[in-house]
Amino acid sequence: MNKKLKWIMLVLMFASTNMMAQVNNKEDETDEEDEITVTDDKGREEVIEFPEAMTYDLDSLLNLYMSKTYLDEDDCNMRDINPVYSKEDYINRLLRLPNVMEMVYNEVVQKFIDRYSGRLRHSISYMLGASNFYIPIFEEALEAYQLPLELKYLPIIESALNPKAVSRVGASGLWQFMIGTGKQYGLQVNSLVDERRDPIKSSYAAARYLSDLYKIFGDWNLVIAAYNCGPENINKAIRRSNGNKDYWEIYPYLPKETRGYVPAFIAANYIMTYYSLHNICPMSTRLPAKTDTVMVNKNVHLEQVAEVIGINIDLLRSLNPMYRRDIIPGATEPYALRLPLTEVGKFIEQQDSVYNYKVDELLNKRSEVEIKDDVPTYYKKSKRSYKRRSARYKSRKSSARKRKSSRRRSSRRRR
What we know:
Blueprint: H1 3-34, E1 35-39, E2 45-49, H2 58-62, H3 65-70, E3 71-72, H4 87-96, H5 107-117, H6 121-144, H7 154-159, H8 179-184, H9 199-217, H10 220-229, H11 231-240, H12 247-250, H13 256-259, H14 261-274, E4 284-285, E5 291-296, E6 299-301, H15 302-309, H16 313-319, E7 327-329, E8 335-340, H17 344-356, H18 359-362, H19 383-414
Antiparallel strand pairs: 1-2, 3-4, 5-8, 6-7
C-alpha cells in the first residue's frame, strides 16, 4: 500500500470517527432534553423523565394569542447568570414557603430547580407573565373546594400554562385531562366541543378531582402523584412497598415520569416564588379587557360573529378555546359564547345578522338529501364470484344428469 493511499484511509477513518462523535453528542443532547440522571450514595445511577411540559418549545408558547397580545418582554432585562447557592439556602427557602403541603429538599428536587432556573429560565419568565391570566382562576376553583392554594402551580408542570397543550397520550388543556377523566368530572368532549380546553370549567373539574383523590389517599404528595399516573398505579406502588403510604418510600415502585412529578412540583413552587434570586424577571402583562358570556341557542360559526360584530377572529378563539372547529353547536343545547364586555350589547342587537351571515358557506351541513335512483347500478363481476357461480352451475347440471339417468333406469325396470 503506497503512502498516498494510507493517508486517504487515515483521513476517512478520522472523518468517520468525528461524525460518530457528533451523532452521539446529538443523541446525548436529545436525551438530556427529556430526562435527568441522579446518582445515589452507593454510586447507582437513576434516570428520571421530565414531565412533558418541561420539554415544550418557548417559541410555541409565545405564539399563543394571549402571549402575543398581552405579554411584553422588552422591559425584562434579566442577566443570564444563575447564581450558585448552598444546599442550606434551598432548604431554608422551601421551609419558608407559606404552604400546607410538604416541600422537602433532596438531590432530585435540586435537579429540577436547576432545570427551571437554568435552561428553562426564559420559559419561567413567560409563565410568570401568563400566570396573571390564569392563577386567579385556579385560586378561585381551589378555594371553592377548600384545597391548598399551592396546587395552583400544578398546571406549570402539566401544560406550561398553554391552554392548547395536548400530550403524547391525548391529555388536553391547562390541567391535562384525559377524555375519560374529563367526562367523569363533567367536561364535555365531542367533535365540536372540548371543555378540557376551557380554563374555568377545567379548573373546577381539576379541583373536584384533586379533592376526591385526597379522600382516597389523605396525603398531598400521593394526590399529585396519582394526578399524574392514576390512583391504580399509586395503589400498586403502595402494595409493592408493603403498604407504605409515604411518597418517598414508594418512589422506587412508581413509573419513571411520576418519580420526577413531585420533585418538579416542589421546584415549580420554589421558582415561581424565588425567581428574582435567580435573575429571572416576569414578562410584563397587560391584562385583557373584561369579558362576559351570552348563551347561544343556534349553530353559529365564530367567523360569523367576528365579521358582523367586528372582532378579531383570533381573539374570539382565545376567549372560546373549547370550540374545536370554530363552530358553536347551539342547536344541540345552549352554549356560552364569551365576548369582550364592550361587545356583548352589539351581539345581542345584531344576532339575527350574525346567524344569517354566510350561513350556507360556513355551516353547510345538509339536513336532508334525495337518493339519486334514476341511474342503473352496475356491478363488476370478480373472477372469484364467477368461479363460484360456475361451480354451482356445474353442480346443478351434474345433479340433473344423475336424476335423468335414474329415471331412465327405473323406466326400463318397469318394462
